[in-house]
Amino acid sequence: MATDYKFEGWVADDPSSVEGKMVWREYEPKVWEETDVDIKITHSGICGSDIHTLRAGWGATRFPAVVGHEIVGVAVRVGSQAEGGIKVGDIVGVGAQSDSCLSRDGPCDACEVGEENYCTKRVNTYNSLHRNGSQTQGGYALYHRCPSYFVIKIPKGIAPEQAAPMLCGGVTVFSPLKRYNVGPGKRVGVIGVGGLGHCAVLFAKALGADKVVAISRKSDKKQDAAQLGATDFIATAEDEDWATKNARTLDVIISTVASPKMPLAQYLGLLSRGGTFVQVGAPEEPVPLSAFALIRTRVHLTGSVIGSPGEIREMFDLVAAKGVKVWVETRPMKEANQAVLDMVDVSALLGSNLAVANPLHPRIYTKPPPAKLPRAETSENNNVNPSELIPGAYIVEFADDHDTPETFLNSLKADGLDVESRMDLSNRLFKGVSFQVKNIGEVHHDSTLLRRKIESSPRIRSLWPVRTIQLAKPEDHGAPASGAITKANAKRQEAAFGNSTKDTFSPHVMTQVDKLREQGITGKGVRIAIIDSGVDYTHPALGGCFGPGCLVEAGWDFTGDDFLPNVRPLQPDADPMDNCAGHGTHVAGIIAAQLEGNEYGFTGAAPGAKLAAYRAWGCASTSTNEVLLAAFSRAFEEGADIISCSDGDPSGWAEDAWGVLAARIADAGVPVVISEGNDGGSGMFYASTPATGRGVAGSGAVTNSNFPTILNEGTFSVDSNSTSGAKSDFAYLPGVPQLVGDLSLQLWSPGENNACSDLPDDTPDLSNKIVLLLFPDSRATGCYPIDQGNRIVAKGGHYILFYTNDNTTMRDEQYVYSQGIQGVASIPPYQSDQWLSLLEQGRSVTVSIPSANNTRTRLEELENNSSGSYMGSFSSWGPTWELEASPQFAAPGANILSTFPVALGGYRVMTGTSMSCPLNAAIYALLGEAHGTKDPKRLRSIVSSTSKPLAWYDGTAAHTDLIAPVPQQGAGIIQAFDAARSNVELSVDSISFNDTDHFTGNKTFTIENHGPADVVFEVSHRKAVTMYTFVETTDRLRAASFPNPIVEEWAELQFSSEKITVSAGGSAELTVTCVPPSNVNATRLPVYSGYIALTSTTDAPSLSLPYLGVVGSMHDIPVIAPAQAYLANYYSQAPANTTYTIRRPDPANPPLTDRGDQSTTPNVIISPTVGTASIQVEVLRISGDKEENLGSLAGWPLPYAPRTETRAFFNGLLADNTVLGPAVYAMKVRALRIFGDRTNEGDWDVVKTVPFVLKYETSGNGTTTPT
């Protein structure tokens, strides 16, 4: 039976989906039966089982698969034979089980006693088959279909985001707690204080246990455990005698951990005689068991799996009675891939559950617990390398400028290589081609020799592998609400610009662009090339046309819509239209949006400039470095004055082919501006290529001082029955359920009660009122929106308006799932302040909401009073691995309003360095017009020296007494007006004192005065925050994540002069002497930085020069150690001599080498501590005590690699396409140290894996056998 809704969700096609590669699309649901219920999903919890299933860790997964088995939503269709009294509109949930035999096939010992979860024919909510043969699919979706017996009504008073994680995680621990009679008089231990563990502590306490002991390796969860209700805490890694001290003190232990290395014997020793140990965490490997641990205390060792429908209902009864509230972080469903990645890095979520929620645009449903969620101590597992090598594909630069692709490729063919051209990459600065080697396996057995043979050709200057590049996704804050634009709002800036040249757009005010616009400087005569996803030039604010005479006057599409590397081919044409990604259109508006046709009344920073659009990504937002090189080449050859590219690859190296070409273009006189990246959470040394290219301007991002949001518009009147009852407009954000239809309601507020406790008896009838409520801090108060809603309904109310005290919550659409609530919305803080004041005065306020057909929208630019005007925490950090400053400077990039493809809504507010980069490029255009030069070196120097260093913001609070580090902000936020009026140029734009090995304490730079008057500067030192690169650990160095640990030590600077005069047209030198900080731990690689301040005593602008240095040796930091490169079974070390039986590879159609099954395919996981110029993975054939090096694994080596975890999969194929026979092999990983010499073996870190046995099969999915 067809439905009017589609079953769409995040579909996993193979084990690589666990790497954040699920795809949103339609899928086939269960074939409908009249016992079924269809659920419109509002929330789906993310469980560790989802991760195991995605990567096939518990056996084969039925792909394609939709995971998620903690599902809550609204029943939208109920079959005629459905059980349980479920009605359409009920809030219901589904856990990890969707069916069992229910004794339909004969007596079932489990189902007959209500233990359906132990039925031998249990049907899981996903990765199973329904009884009618349909595949089960889970909850990362819009809808879910399930047999009614396993659909649970959610009791009133339990919020959906609370109910979701309880349906699996909660009942998994509740079931054994009840089964083993936990209650008064019982002593309970809970091993692990993660998602399952924190539920176990809550439930043990709610059941009345006398003693609840939380057990973890370290004490960092002690405070959380106490908040949950734990009476005691054991940190096993911090007390050698923990097992002895606590022997026989517990009656029941619930083990939620999934580590096969748990000290099981010691845990069993904690139990009293006859005690019970229940394992609910599911390790992917066997857990060693000591029989004596069982024998000597007569303890019971058992397990438990999820819970039955009856137990789930019993659990919810306890939850409702005791007010149990789990810790939940909610995220929008569109972020499911990122949520999966964060669950893989399970340490990032200890102490909380995670739920993804529909609809597919950002919403926040509860305040996150606590003020700051527990986060990973290190960043290494947060990073997913966006680059993948394309086997056998290379980029080559010719040594002879007279060489051509044809002559070069013919020379390779003459050497016996079957090659074909991929792309001609030649321009005036770079002569080269990308090509594919096809039959290399037939010619050269040793892949290393093959590469050396190609590189040894006298025709070659440089060789790089072709790799994929993923377009850096900024945060998209959603499309505007539907409806007409409010005329008054649309004319707001139009009036300002029309009557004067005043620019009030906050990103322009922050960067002094407004002052240049007052002088009529608009970037006239400058062409800015945008290398991106194309531009929707049909947008009225972008000129509405393409070609000569238009705003977008030139361009080229290199990819076509459908391009996907190694899957769908390039389809180039002359039309760079962006009709799907939107990224390039947003960038174009930031640079040059026009006022005419602009519904929101803003302009780009350089509306007088012309644009050339080069489309380098298709709709899938994936490209290759060769396509990027071709785009840069064409932009340069076609006369770009400035090149802007909002993308990069987080390698931190300048020598990549893309970085090399970008640097040459800049050296040839064309400024190149590149986004620094959106990986600020990964800490230092994570700058993007080609932003790290020499002479290239890498752009960091500052948070907008304003918080623009596009809201619906209603009206209100005060004392409407009086003569002063004129109507005024107000803005609101619709929630769920939405306020609909010509409503006119009197405003009422419960005051301090806030409906977080029962409303008093004298509360008026609320049926014709709309209730104004403060959105609760649920974690701090225990009050949830559903609680408030229930109390409003109890007094006859149906409508709620929420407010907060934080402007930045005005994109967080709120849900209230109380039966009887018919409409919810949020209003800005300034509006609630006004209305509350009126109500306190005894005035009457009547609120009117228009019908859906008459809805209008308006732009609200609220003040960001928390993080505005500070560096965005997402903005990537430098420095480069060569210790050069990166980014160069910063501009507003968070919460930026700009254009978007017309078909996708026309406008968007987005966040990322993708947004700051084009603003910087536009400012270059303004300065080019102001100074009459586009020389990159001069512009970069002027922009850097006049930028303003910002105070340190640590992600939660500003520290106005500290300056943010140079590796985060470079020179600071651009000040365009100061740069335009500065006639002083510094010979350098930053100073690097390098590391201790290469330290040079004296640096001299020149100050040149191109102006008509003398300038005088007072010289001083402004210290910035010093930070450690690594966290303090005992096993190995681990990169710290944002914010990196601060050390209160600084460098000391001395100057050759404390006051310097530079005559008109003259120059002067200044020498700086640096003494690095001494009381620091050099092993943790502290990075010190600051600014040399040149404070002007004349009319000239004051200047500053950033500097940085490192205490310690970059070379001495090991890239890899044995624990960082090993034969892996997922994230555990595979045993020596494991046998892998895999399909024999076909050299004519080689398998992917960057992915595979992490359990059934030999793979080595590599977790470098720092970046490396080369990682090599070689295959060794083992015969007794002998080993033979067969050459590089297919897809390797990896040049200029970041400190990003990666895997090498061995599918029987070498890099030269040689198929290896069945034998015993090992893999050898080699990584070159920073500043290392490739020819010196001592500069390479080398790790060998344990041996493994390779066999081939003729069919099947492959197997793994430990031996």
TrEMBL record:
The keyword Aminoacyl-tRNA synthetase does not apply. Gene3D superfamilies: Medium-chain alcohol dehydrogenases, catalytic domain (3.90.180.10), NAD(P)-binding Rossmann-like Domain (3.40.50.720), Peptidase S8/S53 domain (3.40.50.200), Subtilisin-like superfamily (2.60.40.1710). Residues 20-341 form the Enoyl reductase (ER) domain. It comes from the Eukaryota. GO terms for cellular component: membrane. The active site is at D532 (charge relay system), H583 (charge relay system), S914 (charge relay system). The keyword Protease applies. GO terms for biological process: alcohol metabolic process; proteolysis. Residues 1141-1164 are annotated as: Disordered. One of its GO terms (molecular function) is alcohol dehydrogenase (NADP+) activity. It catalyses: a primary alcohol + NADP(+) = an aldehyde + NADPH + H(+). Belongs to the zinc-containing alcohol dehydrogenase family. Belongs to the peptidase S8 family. This is alcohol dehydrogenase (NADP(+)). It comes from Colletotrichum simmondsii. The lineage of its organism: Eukaryota, Fungi, Dikarya, Ascomycota, Pezizomycotina.
